[in-house]
Hints:
There is one protein chain. The chain is of the alpha+beta class. Helices cover 27% and strands 21% of the residues. Strands 1-2-3-4 form a four-stranded antiparallel sheet. β1 (11-12) and β2 (15-21) form a beta hairpin. α2 runs antiparallel to α3.
Amino acid sequence: MSKIIDLTGQTFGLLTVTDRASNDRHGHSRWVCRCVCGGTATALGLQLRNGHRRSCGCLKAARRSPNGPQRVTRLIHREAATWPQEERPPRRQTGAA
Length: 97
């Protein structure tokens, strides 16, 4: 049995890990996460760490809706606004130079 990496408090995409859940039937660690949209999700630690799980499902639902791209952009910007200043990605310059 390998050591469990404590992911509590870490953020992956739009999800922030809040608590540990019971293992799945294969013995893999699962985590309870809170999404920036207010939803919750349970995800495998491996999925979180390798980027295969980034939201509670709100990104997929938003992409399917008519105003999907705008909603996804708002969710991502809301999440990015919570980052410490030194970790924020540089803003893209728009307009004429």
